[in-house]
């Protein structure tokens, strides 16, 4: 149960690729190649430390949250720091990816450019101010700022169970 839910949580974001397809050059080729490379890298990133950790401490009943970092520090100090830095970098990357894709979804639900050439297909489920985007880059600024504020407020929630 816990392993499967952790793996599903860790691989989150794959379902959001369509939100930014309009911003990707040659998405048919780019998505397939990028997804294949990313799947290999993500699998190695999760699998390799676990394999090494099991070699260092085979009794899995003694494992607890943070065991991999503890094992890394016991091997060599710099390995532990690299593991901690990798974890932080990974979480920041996941946050940025989620902010980017989710803000684009909010932008679209607020009207965005969807249906602008087809007046019989109005799509607007959120207030129209959330469809405001940068003229220079096309970034959904209002949706991005609102999403960032919402995520920042979730940091102060005491119980992780309420967020999930």
From TrEMBL:
Membrane topology label: Multi-pass membrane protein
Entry-linked Pfam families: AA_permease_2
InterPro entries: AA/rel_permease1, RMV1-like
GO cellular component: plasma membrane
Membrane-spanning ranges: 31-54, 66-88, 141-163
Name of the protein: Amino acid transporter
Location within or outside the cell: Cell membrane
Keyword entries, A-Z: Cell membrane, Membrane, Transmembrane, Transmembrane helix, Transport
Membership in a protein family: Belongs to the amino acid-polyamine-organocation (APC) superfamily. Polyamine:cation symporter (PHS) (TC 2.A.3.12) family.
GO molecular function terms listed in the Swiss-Prot or TrEMBL record: polyamine transmembrane transporter activity
